[in-house]
TrEMBL record:
Signal peptide: none annotated. Residues 52-85 have a biased composition (Low complexity). GO terms for molecular function: rRNA (uridine-N3-)-methyltransferase activity. PANTHER family: LIM ZINC-BINDING DOMAIN-CONTAINING PROTEIN (PTHR36911:SF1), LIM ZINC-BINDING DOMAIN-CONTAINING PROTEIN-RELATED (PTHR36911). GO terms for biological process: rRNA base methylation. This is 25S rRNA (uridine-N(3))-methyltransferase BMT5-like domain-containing protein. Residues 1-97 are annotated as: Disordered.
């Protein structure tokens, strides 16, 4: 950190000092209640944490000034003219007063913002067109002095608003962002404080006696600043971020040792009206104080209240009088506005609400203009103005009321019908929406996002007794409640939308009609979804089905203007099916999941395969054999076992009747229908030797016979394909090569036997009567109640919640809803889709429609029953001998003859209504236009096919499964569709940062995508992701555009607490442009550094060379070496001339004694090396950590670099960490790993030297990695979880209570890149 060398120019130095004050110091701890007193004997250098600042009235210039603009315009650009990347802001010479500020993305367009010095306003350019910029009003007086430039930066960081280009009016407005579903508690901090201040950089300051602690809620870190007083009573922040405080003695403290004596009474309030003047309120008295002259200019006594406006005027309320004070330089002029004022409420930065005679309320601006609001008293609870026409206030205990003066009618918003609660507080957010907190019975947070609509969201959990709500710069909200602070974040509700050609379709759910509707170009359409052909998914809601269809690559939405409908049709022709994955496994049951995975029941475990990432996960249940699985509409997995137990989780279950659970089907979120086989005698033959690995778990059976299921379970000659649920694919004894009959039973009540040694394939429809019975039960998962529905029946579930039962003996078909018999003389029943069934009555097949008595004839040939499926539009497909036929009410529409002697598996209907079935070793696909293709690859002899949610297909065969992917014609169209879909998702929910990476891979020019991602990450305060996007955007550019990318990131960082990252980018800009203004980010109070084991001192030299721009950096460094070897070839004299202190004979294990009482923010040790014959070296690193911890406080860091080769399976990196046990050392001394990065690239001139010899052991510095540890008060957990990047501790059993056993442990990190951050610490 360094001031400009030309320090003779006093105004530049003073300007820099003001800027420096906006940054919190880097003392960090995750526990605000812990004492921040350093260890005994440890001193903090004066000025290190609280740097002095001055106010001299000099206005600060924008970072991107005319000087930089001139430089940017003269730099040569190496790219070709055909590039489509974003151009930098164009600065014309004839407009020298137009200063560039910041750029932002609005969809695929870049908005470049400028400040017009002549007109004193913001302007913007989009595609060379100029726009005026309209900012929302300032609703918090603490920020009333913010310049338009600062307000713009804050808005671009705010997740609640987004810029909108109004082409018709040539304006850039800030509009409400994506809809908010609810508010959730992000963090809670228990703490006590005297006063608080929400800062413009996204932090919060609290005063405790004479100390101000500043909380960065995003990094969980605290900074400390102390003042020479015994009680702080007020705080304020300048437009540049400088903190000043007032105390109980009437003293205004500008810094630790700079103060102004204002009055003898306690200071109650401080408000900035510009950079150098503040208004101070105390004991019915108001003072105007000049920070430049360090004296108060004028005093007004007898004042009730004062209000500050953005034009610099002060409004004073005395008794019934209201006057305005105009400030010019250090002089003031007072003018009376009204002498009959009853009450005054701050509206926004340019207006007040006042009540005058006869309780008439009006909006009064600084010019004296009045806008009448009728007789609405401003004394109402939580009275707040929304705009010039509307106000909001609490009405009784029922909710909030919004009054519109133009409509003269209030709109009420209430979260419930109860009145046993009260409103505690409310606030208006940046987008003009209202958020308020309630207490008692309906405690929580309530949000009225759209003022013109009665809709609102309520978020009750954990937000009790909030007394004040404040919005932070990035759109988070903090709630103050007693001795605690609650940080709330919005949960974005992403509207469901899709592209249809060049039109955007928005989908909505009509709660009144209980159906889906859609809008395209303001026209409303009904939405027609294809039927559900899989009973496993029959309970999915319409919204759930819609989301699945929009993911499916086989279909797309189509607008039918004639019928005003949105339907789903085939996307593109399929030319082939290719094999994607082919895992081999034996399983008892399986389930295709809605999220694109597939689960297999194997013994007592469920193995789930993610077909997209080719990974497996395991879930174990307390049973010996899982026999059935089902998934709720919300994606929750439950399983049934062979003992009649329904397992809701690994430790939660419901016991049913004894007997194997064969099938489970959800009919809604909380109820399932279960079919069991209840055996009088055991009919299962365990004579064969198929092994199932069930994780070596031994459970007792219900008959008290102890069975070890380590090598068990063979099912003799039974093949039962259940198409209504996905159970029993155990055709163990079916031999396809020996012409055994492949007999598959499609009736769920029957078990079919395989007949060997027959030369052709046929289907045996005879009943195999066994001495058992089946039972159907309805189970409530919430209440865990069970209701018997029937015995020896089959059930079918429909999407309306009805359960249809078929009794094969009585041939009756009835519904459980009203126990009414629907049909008689029904021989067989098969599921058609979610609202229809196929029935066989004598020799006639019908499809029962959703309406009572509705029958659609399907044919008279009972062979039609084979592979009978419903396609679309009342059409059916079936196998007839050697043909596959499609008919419409008996009329044959399509006949495909596949020849004699082919084995045909089960037919499956895909989402687009096309037909796919296995024939021999190939797949046959009859597409919706009746074009037929056959796969070119062999896919085994597949018996059954099922479709995934995204349009992939899984095939089941003996001994495994195969995942099949359609080869779609015109893949470019698919990519275009995917780009459109991702763009829409990000438009409505920018928080899905992973989608930016996905989108960048498929777009032709990813630069704009990375810039959009960077801006979204900054809104979310995700500095890690923002830096990743920034680095990737840089790699897409060169020359002038690379500088533009750095400027974008730098300008966003200026409004955040990320001081370190801002300096990194500033240094990059200085190197690229040579502009010294970026060096203003630095001053001479550098972090104190202690470097251990320097050897040849090449690291210290490389460090100074790398940061040669930082004048005086060497004075903050102490470089040490164990050996007393002052080699003349070492750069010792050169380093000493730069201020580095060189010490020899320094032992790393004893630095706490050698440097007792000193503090080092950074301690480095590069490549610790065992000397020849040195024993017990494994204790050196742990002892070093313990010694170093005595010289540091929480937030300080230790850097250790080690040789870490990992290429080609090299495990020597584990050995190096074992010889230098950094895991044990860091954990024992309360240090957490926060970063791992490459070392050689950062310090290319570093040369390793052995301790005992003047030669290197490590010749290749590219294998060196630097581990960065940060000291914490206590380790909440050895390993942080849930980060984008994380690390694992391996080589030892992790035991939080026994950390001594980590001698051989090592860090296994996810990456070696410089961005490998394992926490958000900056």
């Amino acid at each position: 950190m360094i001031r400009e060398k030309e320090s003779s120019k006093q105004e530049k130095v003073l300007e820099l000092e003001i800027r420096e004050k906006s940054e919190p110091s880097m003392i960090t701890t995750p526990h605000p209640t812990k004492s921040m007193v350093p260890s005994p004997g440890l001193t903090v250098e004066k000025g290190e944490e609280s740097e002095s600042s001055s106010f001299d009235g000099t206005s600060t210039t924008s970072t991107t000034s005319n000087e930089l603009s001139s430089l940017l315009s003269t730099l040569s650009v190496s790219e070709s003219s055909s590039q489509t990347r974003l151009p930098p802001p164009e600065i014309k010479d004839d407009k020298p007063n137009i200063i560039p500020i910041i750029s932002s993305m609005c969809g695929d367009k870049s908005i470049d913002f400028f400040f017009n010095e002549q007109k004193k306003c913001l302007v913007a350019k989009v595609d060379q067109d100029e726009f005026s910029v309209v900012l929302p009003p300032i609703r918090d007086q603490e920020h009333v002095a913010l310049s338009p430039v600062h307000r713009l930066r804050m808005l671009l960081r705010n997740r609640l608003v987004s810029p909108s280009i109004q082409t018709s009016t040539k304006q850039i407005n800030f509009v409400t962002g994506p809809p908010i579903e609810s508010w959730e508690i992000l963090k809670t901090y228990p703490l006590k404080y005297d006063h608080r201040l929400v800062r413009s950089n996204g932090t919060i300051s609290f005063s405790f006696c004479n100390t101000v602690k500043t909380l960065d809620v995003h990094n969980d870190t605290w900074s400390i600043q102390s003042f020479q007083t015994n009680q702080i009573t007020a705080m304020a922040e300048s437009p540049e971020g400088v903190l000043i405080v007032g105390d109980n003695a009437g003293v205004l403290h500008l810094s630790l040792d700079d103060m102004i004596h204002v009055n003898k009474g306690p200071i109650e309030r401080i408000t900035f009206i510009n950079q150098n003047q503040v208004v101070v309120g105390h004991q019915n008295c108001i003072s105007l104080v000049s920070l430049q002259l360090k004296e108060f200019i004028r005093e007004w006594t007898g004042a009730n209240k004062f209000f500050c406006l953005s034009n610099g005027n002060i409004i004073i309320h005395r008794g019934n009088s209201l006057s305005t004070v105009e400030i010019k330089l250090n002089e003031s002029t007072e003018t009376v506005l009204s002498k009959n004022i009853g009450g005054v409420v701050y509206a926004h930065d340019s207006s007040l609400f006042v009540s005058e005679e006869k309780d008439k309320t009006c909006l009064l601006d600084y010019t004296g203009e009045r806008i009448p609001f009728g007789n609405v008293p401003i004394g109402k609870l939580f009275f707040k103005p929304l705009d010039n026409n509307r106000i909001v206030y609490a009405y009784g205990t029922f909710g909030m009321e919004i009054y519109d003066r133009l409509k003269e009618k209030p709109t009420q918003h209430t979260p419930n019908k109860h009145n046993s609660w009260c409103i505690n507080c409310s606030t208006i957010l940046s987008d003009g929406s209202i958020i308020y907190a309630t207490d008692r019975r309906e405690a929580g947070i309530h949000h009225i996002q759209y003022i013109d609509k009665p809709d609102m969201t309520s978020s009750p959990a954990g937000a009790n007794s909030i007394s004040e709500l404040k919005e932070m710069a990035d759109g988070l909200v903090v709630g103050f409640c007693g001795n605690a602070l609650v940080v709330l974040q919005p949960v974005i509700l992403m509207p469901i939308s899709s592209m249809c050609g060049d039109k955007i379709i928005y989908f909505f759910f009509n709660e009144q009609k209980k159906c889906l509707v859609a809008k395209a170009d303001q026209d409303e359409f009904t939405v027609v979804l294809p039927p559900i052909r899989n009973q496993n998914h029959v309970a999915i809601s319409q919204l759930g089905r819609l989301k699945i269809l929009l993911r499916n690559r086989l279909v797309k939405p189509e607008i039918n203007q004639t019928n005003k409908q949105i339907t789903f049709v085939t996307r593109s022709p399929i030319v082939d099916w290719k094999k994607l994955h082919n895992p081999s496994l034996n399983y008892r049951c399986y389930l295709v999941r809605l999220n694109g995975t597939i689960s297999f029941g194997i013994g007592n475990a469920v193995e789930t395969f993610d077909i997209h990432s080719n990974t497996w996960s395991t879930q174990v249940f307390q049973t010996n054999q899982i026999t059935a699985m089902a998934e709720s509409p919300e994606g929750v997995l439950i399983v049934g076992d062979n003992a009649g137990v329904l397992h809701l989780s690994s430790d939660d279950s419901i016991s049913l009747n004894k007997g194997t659970i064969e099938r489970i089907t959800f009919i809604n979120q909380n109820q399932v229908v279960v079919r069991q086989y209840n055996y009088f005698k055991n009919i299962t033959n365990y004579s064969n030797n198929t092994n199932y690995n069930i994780y070596n778990t031994n459970y007792n059976n219900n008959n008290n016979n102890n069975t070890n299921y380590n090598n068990i379970t063979n099912y003799n000659n039974i093949t039962n394909y259940n198409n209504n649920n996905t159970n029993y694919i155990n055709n163990i004894n079916t031999n396809y090569n020996n012409n055994n009959i492949y007999n598959t039973n499609y009736n769920n009540n029957n078990i079919m036997n395989n007949n060997n040694n027959v030369n052709d394939h046929h289907y045996n429809n005879n009943y195999n009567v066994q001495n058992n019975y089946s039972s159907i039960s309805l189970v409530s998962l919430k209440d865990k109640n069970t209701e018997r529905l029937g015995i020896d029946t089959e059930f079918f579930c429909l999407s309306n919640g009805n359960i249809i039962l078929h009794d094969a003996k009585s041939k009756k078909l009835k519904t459980t809803q009203s126990n009414i018999c629907l049909e008689n003389n029904i021989d067989r029943v098969e599921y058609a889709h979610d609202s229809s069934l196929f029935v066989l009555e004598k020799d006639q097949i019908y499809m029962l429609g959703p309406n009572p008595g509705e029958r659609i004839p399907c044919g008279q040939n009972t062979q039609y029953w084979t592979n009978l499926k419903y396609t679309n539009d009342n059409r059916i497909v079936y196998r007839d001998g050697d043909s596959m036929k499609i008919s419409d009410r008996g009329d044959i529409l399509f006949n495909f003859n596949f020849g004699v002697g082919h084995s045909i598996g089960s037919t499956t209907i895909l989402s687009d209504g096309s037909i796919i079935y296995p024939i021999g070793n190939r797949l046959q696909h009859i597409q919706s236009n009746h074009d037929t293709i056959q796969s070119t690859q062999d896919h085994f002899r597949i018996g059954l096919l099922e479709e995934f949610a995204d349009g992939l297909v899984i095939g089941f065969y003996q001994g495994g499964v195969v995942i099949l992917e359609p080869v779609i014609k015109a893949l470019d169209q698919w990519n275009s569709f995917k780009i459109e879909q991702l763009g829409l998702k990000l438009k409505h929910d920018f928080t899905q940062l992973n989608l930016y990476h996905e989108l960048a891979v498929i777009v032709s020019d990813p630069y704009k995508t990375y810039i959009n991602g960077m801006e979204s990450a900054m809104k979310l305060n995700n500095i890690y992701q923002a830096r990743r996007f920034y680095e990737k955007a840089k790699r897409c550019t060169s020359g002038l555009l690379k500088i533009e990318t750095a400027i974008r990131f730098y300008e966003y960082l200026k409004s955040t607490p990320y001081k370190h990252q801002r300096r990194v980018v500033a240094l990059e800009l200085f190197k690229q442009t040579g502009n010294k203004k970026y060096m203003k980010e630095f001053n001479r109070n550098y972090k104190s550094r202690l470097i251990i084991g320097e050897g040849n001192f090449s690291y210290t030299k490389s460090l100074l060379d790398e940061h040669s721009q930082l004048e005086g950096l060497g004075k903050s460094i102490i470089a040490t070496e164990l050996q007393n070897n002052n080699n003349p070839n070492y750069p010792i004299e050169q380093l000493q001339k730069k201020g580095v202190k060189i010490l020899f004979g320094i032992n790393a294990k004893e630095i706490d004694q050698l440097f007792k009482g000193q503090r080092f923010k950074r301690i480095h040790w590069n490549c610790p090396f065992r000397g020849s014959g040195e024993a017990g070296f494994e204790q050196v690193i742990p002892n070093f950590f313990q010694s170093a911890s005595q010289l540091q406080i929480p937030g300080d860091r230790i850097h250790i670099s080690l040789e870490q080769p990992t290429s080609n399976g090299n495990t020597y990196y584990q050995t190096r960490q074992g010889e230098n046990p950094i895991v044990k050392g860091s954990i024992m001394a309360n240090y957490k790993l926060i970063r791992k990065r490459r070392f050689g690239e950062r310090y290319p001139n570093y040369k390793h030297k052995m301790t005992s010899a003047d030669k290197p052991y490590i010749h290749d510095t590219t294998v060196i990695r630097e581990f960065v540890f940060e000291k914490v008060v206590s380790l909440p957990s050895i390993q942080d979880r849930g980060k984008v990047k994380n690390y694992k501790i391996e080589g030892a059993s992790i035991d939080e209570n026994n950390k001594e056993n980590y001698d051989n442990a090592y860090f296994s990190c996810s990456s070696d890149d410089d961005s490998s951050d394992y926490c958000d610490s900056d």
